[in-house]
C-alpha cells in the first residue's frame, strides 16, 4: 500500500498517567509541527475513528471485565491503525497520537495486573503488518510523581473510570510506564512533567527539533 515515491511519515505517541498534563503538551506539539510546516494529523486512543470513539465512551464509563477492557483497547487500535494511522503515514504525514499500546501495558498491565504476554500476543495480531511491527518512532512519556498527578486529578470535575481509581493504581501505572521506557530507550524520551509548563515546552522544543533533524537526515 505504501507509495514508494512518498517518504513514510513519522509516528509520535504521547503518554503519561492521568494528571501528567499530557493534553496541554500535546496541543503545544501540534502547534510546533504546524510551525515547522510538517504535515500531520492529531489523533487519540482509545478512539480516533467513529467506531473507536464509541468504544472509548464504553471504556471510560461502563463497568466491564478487565480482559474485556484490554481486548476493546486493542479492537479500537486495530480500527485506528487501519483507518487512520497507516493511511496517514503512507501519505507521508506525521501522526501525533494521544496514547498508544504503551498505555495498555501501563494501565491494563501495571494498573489492572494483567500479564504482559497477553498484550504481546495482541500487539502481534494488531500491529504486525507483514513482519513489520508498527510502533511509534518516538514516545514522549510525561512523568510526574503520584502526589502531583493526584492533586491535578482532584481538580477535574467529572472523573472517568480510570481517574477514579485509587492512588496505588496510578502509582503502578506510572511504574509500568517507566519500565516500558527503560526497555525501549531508543524510542522513549522521559519528560519531567512536574515542572512549569513553559520550562517543559522549552525542553520539548530542543528535544523535538533535535529528533526531527536526526530522523529526517
Ligand atoms: P485520557 O487520554 O487521559 O484522556 P482525557 O485527557 O480526555 O481524560 O483518557 C483515556 C483513558 O484511557 C486514560 O485514563 C487511560 C486509559 N487507557 C487505558 O487504560 N489503556 C489504553 O490502552 C489506552 C489507550 C488508554
UniProtKB/TrEMBL annotation:
Catalyzed reaction equations: dTMP + ATP = dTDP + ADP
Binding-site positions, ATP: 16-23
GO MF annotations, alphabetized: kinase activity
Keywords: ATP-binding, Kinase, Nucleotide biosynthesis, Nucleotide-binding, Transferase
Listed Pfam families: Thymidylate_kin (PF02223)
EC number: 2.7.4.9
Domain Thymidylate kinase-like: 14-203
InterPro entries given in the database record: P-loop_NTPase (IPR027417), Thymidylate_kin-like_dom (IPR039430), Thymidylate_kinase (IPR018094)
Superkingdom, natural source: Bacteria
Entry-linked PANTHER family: THYMIDYLATE KINASE (PTHR10344), UMP-CMP KINASE 2, MITOCHONDRIAL (PTHR10344:SF4)
NCBIfam families linked: DTMP_kinase
Family membership: Belongs to the thymidylate kinase family.
Described purpose of this protein according to its UniProt entry: Phosphorylation of dTMP to form dTDP in both de novo and salvage pathways of dTTP synthesis.
Protein name as annotated: Thymidylate kinase
